[in-house]
Input
Amino acid sequence: MTVKDTSNKSLTVKESLTSVYPIPDAVLASMAIMRKVDCNVDATAEILNSMEYRLFEADIKAWRATAPDVSQSGVSFNLTDNARKELKKDANAVYKEFKDAKYSGVNYGYKGSRI
Output
């Protein structure tokens, strides 16, 4: 099954990842090479559910969590601090699921008034 947009046109892997937030081609290409994902093929259910794609998507989410707010063609792309935290959390969950080296583990911290 091929993923299609609202006009019933098949989406490529690249289009499935960049339709919401602009990602520089160089960033996308380097991440795709590292994860062995072809961005120019049609996005199918098999590809979108693969470990390689899911880790690639997690890399994109981790990158977006640190990316600056931008304006492009009169459209602004702004992320709140909470949205950035959720992107990091989502990416980390995928890294954990696949035991990826980018998994950051559990963050420990002190909460309270006494040590």
Summary: The radius of gyration is 16 Å.
